[in-house]
Amino acid sequence: MAARIPLERHAVLKRPFTELPEWPLHNAAREALIKASANSAELFLAEVAHEGIEAVMAEHCDALGASRRWDHGEDGVLVDAVFEAYRHWCDVSGSKAFKKEGLGQHIRLAFASADRHRITADGVRSWAYRGLPRKGRS
User: Fold this and answer.
1) How are beta strands 77-78 and 124-130 bridged, if at all?
2) For residues 33 and 4, what is the distance between their CA atoms, to the nearest angstrom?
């Protein structure tokens, strides 16, 4: 039978408690694993939360060459434009895209204050998201 190490000589117990994680599994490897297991909508919306919808839309709508106006100020951002930016983001990142309804469900979960409503944009009735973060939390 192996000899037991006395508790007072154990290396972990000699370290100050400030160096110990609050929970053994809260570390960088766990965070990387969580990020790797996130779906494409969660990753896209994390980018929206971090950078803001304006920055994400500008990057992906410019890449798409979209000439249609997507930002309607207080009325919100067109649902179709957000979905097109999301699909472009998925193509660039190599992720599988959800359908428009699936992205909408993830938006409602990620941004509780956001809502979807009808607007008249350029003479056409469209759906828009109001309440998405404009600026990121940099």
Assistant:
1) antiparallel
2) 34
User: What local confidence, expressed as pLDDT, does residue 4 receive?
Assistant: 63
Supply the pTM of this predicted model: 0.70
Residue found by looking up tokens 């304006």 in the block = 54
Helix (H) or strand (E) holding 49: helix 40-51
pLDDT tier at 9, thresholds 50, 70, 90: low
Residue 123 belongs to a domain with what CATH number?
Answer: 1.10.10
Question: How many distinct structural domains can be found in the chain?
Answer: 1
Helices and strands in the chain, H and E counts:
6, 3
In this predicted model, what pLDDT tens digit does every residue of 50-89 receive, in sequence order?
999 888 888 887 666 655 677 777 788 889 889 999 999 9
Distances (CA, A) of 87 to 14, 49, 94, 118: 52, 17, 10, 22
What sign does the CA torsion over 104, 107, 112, 114 have?
A: negative
Of 92, 28, 33, nearest in space to 59 by CA: 92
In a domain, 124, yes or no: yes
- Per-residue pLDDT band for 106 (boundaries 50, 70, 90) equals very high
